[in-house]
Amino acid sequence: DTEVTQTPKHLVMGMTNKKSLKCEQHMGHRAMYWYKQKAKKPPELMFVYSYEKLSINESVPSRFSPECPNSSLLNLHLHALQPEDSALYLCASSQDPGSTEAFFGQGTRLTVV
Amino acid sequence: GESVGLHLPTLSVQEGDNSIINCAYSNSASDYFIWYKQESGKGPQFIIDIRSNMDKRQGQRVTVLLNKTVKHLSLQIAATQPGDSAVYFCAESIDSGYSTLTFGKGTMLLVSP
Q1: A92: which of A21, B21, B36, B42 is 20 to 30 A away, CA to CA?
Q2: Do B101 and A44 touch (CB under 8 A)?
Q3: Quick check: B82 and B15 in contact, CB under 8 A?
């Protein structure tokens, strides 16, 4: 299994809603990531988890809250988002934290209304 | 701000041609330079990387060239196929123990049959 699976594929939420994005990998990878990608732009790193611990937070607003329940799962909890947070949210994993080869999921297309 | 960018936003080629995608970078401290391919509706996919102390690396149908003098990176794709049509991102990474990929703007490669 060489896949990173993200759910849901699409999500529409209001600015007062609370929702969660989920990511799963069964490759035994020890690093997992959240990236944000706006239309026609490159992905931008949000968070890095290494061995289930949050290692890097790229100054992401607190309305985004990551969680790594175990080595295979990564969640992104969303609360009080703004319309400008609408984007494709990509999860990725890599064998180890220093690897340049990241495996990306298909992403969750988020629309905040 | 971004330290990795691309010269050409769109490259159109005929099937069977060789393609060259270029990238300029500004961070001399980067340890790795990486190419990712993103097809429509999918997450980025790793193609090849090159360490900063190398100037050339070959993969299957792809070659990456690194010119540190002019801070230039290129991806050559031999015998381009319609399935190569995608957005190509160069990225850089500093070997800090974590793979924090910084992506460039991206080039759309369009391959005509």
Answers
A1: B21
A2: no
A3: yes
Of B46, B89, B99, the CB nearest to A31: B99
Taking only the tens place, the pLDDT of each residue in A22-48 is 999 999 999 999 999 999 899 999 999
Distance CA B9, CA B7 (A): 7
Residue B5 has a pLDDT of 54
> Which of A48, A88, A100, A101 best tests the B interface by mutation, with the highest count of B CBs <10 A?
A100
Closest CB to B99: pick one of A43, A100, A105. A100
The answer to whether A101 contacts B97, with C-beta atoms less than 8 Å apart, is no
Cβ neighbour number for residue B112 with a 10 Å cutoff: 11
**What is the per-residue pLDDT across B71-94, written as a single tens digit (0 to 9) for each?**
999 999 999 999 999 999 999 998
Torsion of CA B20, B4, A101, B8, to 10 degrees: -30
Residue that is written with structure tokens 């299957």 in the block:
B60
Does B2 score more than 50 pLDDT? Answer: no
